[in-house]
């Protein structure tokens, strides 16, 4: 991926503990099928595979994996989910995407039976949208930035895989070659 710091290598999906980065499950991405149609809803399949056997946990992931149906499927498995949402998702109410005339540090919420959405404007002309099956109300922090608790929970729990990547990269740098061996 040209925009990533490590542009080349093996793509590995990982499910990690948010606090310790302990790896619970991993799956190697083997690429697009040689023949036939590309995989549909790949992100949903990856999350469901990674969450196999888990109960009573919260899954935090980014917008590649997010859709309403995934959240509903995880609820059936006794799992909740907090995630960022791509703004081009059809399931998003149009009102949450409007940022014109929105005050900085303002929040707009939308609720369904089992799912909450928030659109938060950290500054003028920009918004962040999150979807959650964990949160049930429009609670915001008392901090100066008035971030919704949904966003604060996402920020607190999103770093497990990022930290694993950091630790793995550190291990690559520290690895030493044995004397007399050459790289091939």
UniProtKB/TrEMBL annotation:
The lineage of its organism: Eukaryota, Metazoa, Chordata, Craniata, Vertebrata. It comes from Scortum barcoo (barcoo grunter). This is Uncharacterized protein.
């Amino acid at each position: 991926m040209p925009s990533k710091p490590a542009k080349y290598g093996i793509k590995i999906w990982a499910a990690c503990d948010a606090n310790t980065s302990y790896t619970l499950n991993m799956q190697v991405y083997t690429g697009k099928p040689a023949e036939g149609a590309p995989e549909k809803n790949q992100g949903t399949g990856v999350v469901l595979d990674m969450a196999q056997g888990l109960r009573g946990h919260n899954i935090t992931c980014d917008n590649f994996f997010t859709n309403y149906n995934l959240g509903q499927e995880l609820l059936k498995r006794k799992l909740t989910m907090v995630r960022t949402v791509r703004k081009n998702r059809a399931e998003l109410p149009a009102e949450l995407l409007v940022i014109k005339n929105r005050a900085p540090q303002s929040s707009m919420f939308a609720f369904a039976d089992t799912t909450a959405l928030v659109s938060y404007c950290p500054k003028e002309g920009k918004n962040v949208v999150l979807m959650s099956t964990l949160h049930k109300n429009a609670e915001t922090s008392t901090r100066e930035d008035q971030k919704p608790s949904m966003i604060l929970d996402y920020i607190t729990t999103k770093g497990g895989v990022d930290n694993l990547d950091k630790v793995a990269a550190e291990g690559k740098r520290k690895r030493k070659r044995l004397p007399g061996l050459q790289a091939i």
